[in-house]
Amino acid sequence: MAEKKKLKVKIFDKEYSLLVENQEVAAELAEYVNRMMEETQEELPDQPKDTIAIIAALNIAYDLFVERNKFREFSIQATDKIKKIKLLLDESNFISSPS
Fold first, then answer.
1. Per residue in 30-49, is it b (16+ CB within 10 Å) or e — as a string?
2. Which of 41, 4, 58 is closest to 26 using CA atoms?
3. Fewer CB atoms < 10 Å away: N or C end of the chain?
4. What kind and span of H or E run contains 58?
5. Distance of alpha carbon 64 from alpha carbon 17, whole angstroms
6. Is 7 helix (H, G, I), strand (E, B) or coil?
7. From first to last of its 99 residues, what are the pLDDT tens digits of the chain?
8. Which of 75, 61, 65 is nearest to 33 (CA)?
C-alpha cells in the first residue's frame, strides 16, 4: 500500500489538508471541484455557499453518470463486435474444414 502524503488544497476560498496517495491526482480533483463550485456561483450568484456546493456536487455526479453510460455503451458495442468476429471465425472454420 502506498504511503499517504499531506496535501493542502484550496476549494472555494477555503483551505483543506488532505492525506492522499497521489498528490498530482488529488490536486487535479481539487481544481476540478473548485472550478465547478466557481462556475455554479457565477450561474447562481445570490445563493448561499451550501446551496452552491450541493448544485456543484449534482453537476459533478451528472458528469460521472454521463461518463459511466458512455463506458457501458462502449462495452456493449465491443462485446457485440467480439461476438460477431467469433461467429465469423466459426463460420470460416466450418466452411474451410474438409467434409
1. beebbebbeebbeeeeeeee
2. 4
3. C
4. helix 49-96
5. 25
6. strand
7. 779 999 999 999 999 999 999 999 999 999 999 999 999 999 999 999 999 999 999 999 999 999 998 888 888 888 888 888 888 888 777 776 555
8. 61
